[in-house]
Amino acid sequence: MPSQLSYSDLASLMKRCAGLTVDPELMRTRPDSTFEEYGLDSLGLLAIVGELENQYGTPVEPGAESSKTPGDFLDVVNTSLTTGA
Amino acid sequence: MNATVETTSRARKHIRGAAITGMGIVAPNGVGTDAFWKGVREGITFLDRLTREGCEDSPLRIAGQVRGFEPGSVVEERYLVQTDRFTHFAMTAAELALDDARLPRKDMSPYAVGVVTASGSGGGEFGQRELQQLWGKGPRYVGPYQSIAWFYAASTGQISIRGGFKGPCGVVANDEAGGLDALAHACRSIRHGADAIVVGAAEAPLAPYSVVCQLGYEEMSLARDAGRAYLPFTADACGFAPGEGGAMLIVEEEGAALRRGARVRGRILGHGATFTGPSMWERSREGLAQAIRVALDEAECAPEEIDVVFADALGTPEADRAEALAIADALGAHGTRVPVTAPKTGFGRAYCAAPVLDVASAVLAMEHRVVPPTPYVTDVCHDLDLVTGSSRACGARTALVLSRGLMGCNAALVLRGPEGDM
């Protein structure tokens, strides 16, 4: 069973998929800050979802790719991982 | 004819002229105008064995490659991951050009600045990588940035996004001549009210997939020796060597540029474009001559005022003959006396970027009062005064840049130096 996605994992994905350097602590303390503030556009988020689905070998719940904030995104993804397991 | 000239003269009084105030270059002979010009002026040769990964067994042996390029030193990684090498070149050149022009971006309305680029093939390297994912691993492994990175419009879009330029933007998807057409497009935008346009072209046609696509061009040289690969206007002409890189210019409304104290490096006075069909080089004589006439007419420039010609120099006997005859047709007896040069033989023909690099060379040649040579070329077999060997002192004030494309377009551009007005 895949482990839960952390802010640190999300920061690594943002780096790898979208070339963005983001402090995971900043996202953790401000889960309602927006992806837009970090420079992540919709294609970048789509790339992250695709990468996660390939890693986990299972689809992420629809809606993850339209999340506006890191907090919402982790909620959807981690719920998806729990129910999918 | 007189009526036409009078109309044009009247119109010109109200025309917002286009001044070149900044240039940025990424080419096989260096990054930045200084490095580029050093190579061009000295006629240093940069063609060599194509060594890009995956091209080792290609029938294409000789090309002009940009080596040691570090886009990350100028452009942020977030733009680099979602763009192809051709856009890395374009974004880097654009940033260098903006710096060179010292464009006061903070004081300008974002709607006053636009972006225009020309592209002949889009992003082949990025596209190849994603297609390999598609066929190697499956559709789920194709990244979403493929949707934008390969596209001809990618460089215009990304330069616009990164710079916050929301004025008139455009893309010319065309063969080589498109590089000059993009400059004409920028001049029209200036005429219609834009204050500045970031304009030019960059190409990255040396990824394996892109090279395979070009193998169908019978005009491309498959010579094995760099010294024999690209020899236009000679009896040994055997096609052209492809190159990569490009140039971006800042074109501003001349009055506004002068008022803000910008350094005007050159002015674009006239452009002409025609179409005579792919690989119908004999017919390009008529088309190119007509493009020259249209450009001269728009520039209100007599043939005798042209001080230097930057030739298209395709490098096949038929195409070279057509170009030499077109110059003679359009410039008359002056065509056999005016210095002609083709610096691109030293670093390859970078499709849409080739004529933009020639425009940059022309501006630099007028600034430095020399005509750079045509590297590798020695014995010219056409009735042209081709500058070979080393650069020639020449206080040129007005330059003519020519371009023809493999798909049949012909274009001409008339440029004048900053203090060359009549």
Task: Please give a handful of descriptors for the protein shown.
heterodimer; A: 85 residues; mainly alpha; Non-ribosomal Peptide Synthetase Peptidyl Carrier Protein, Chain A; 5 helices; 61% helix; 0% strand; B: alpha/beta; Peroxisomal Thiolase, Chain A, domain 1; 15 helices; 37% helix
Write the layout of secondary structure elements.
The complex is a heterodimer of chains A (85) and B (422).
Chain A: H1 7-18, H2 24-29, H3 35-38, H4 42-56, H5 70-84
Helix pairs in contact in A: 1-4
Chain B: H1 2-14, E1 18-27, E2 30-31, H2 33-42, E3 47-49, E4 62-64, H3 77-80, H4 85-101, E5 113-119, H5 124-136, H6 146-149, H7 154-163, E6 170-173, H8 178-191, E7 196-203, H9 208-214, H10 226-229, E8 245-253, H11 254-259, E9 266-275, H12 281-299, E10 308-310, H13 317-331, H14 334-337, E11 339-341, H15 353-368, E12 370-371, E13 385-386, E14 392-393, E15 398-404, E16 409-416
Parallel strand pairs in B: 5-6, 5-7, 10-11, 10-15, 11-13
Antiparallel strand pairs in B: 1-2, 1-8, 1-9, 3-4, 7-8, 9-16, 12-14, 15-16
Helix pairs in contact in B: 2-15, 4-7, 8-15, 12-13
Compact summary:
With 85 residues, chain A is mainly alpha-helical.
Written overview of the protein:
The complex is a heterodimer of chains A (85) and B (422). Chain A has 85 residues and is an all-alpha fold. Chain A has one domain: Non-ribosomal Peptide Synthetase Peptidyl Carrier Protein, Chain A (Orthogonal Bundle), CATH 1.10.1200. Chain A has five helices and no strands. In chain A, α1 packs across α4. The model of chain A has no long low-confidence stretch (mean pLDDT 92). Chain B folds into two domains: 242 residues, Peroxisomal Thiolase, Chain A, domain 1 (3-Layer(aba) Sandwich); 149 residues, Thiolase/Chalcone synthase (Peroxisomal Thiolase, Chain A, domain 1, 3-Layer(aba) Sandwich). Chain B has 15 helices and 16 strands. The two termini of chain B are 21 Å apart. The chains are: A mainly alpha (85), B alpha/beta (422). Chains A and B meet through α4 of A and α3 of B. Chain B: It holds the Pfam family Ketoacyl-synt_C. Chain B: Keywords: Acyltransferase, Transferase. Chain B: GO terms for molecular function: 3-oxoacyl-[acyl-carrier-protein] synthase activity. Chain B: This is Putative polyketide beta-ketoacyl synthase 2.
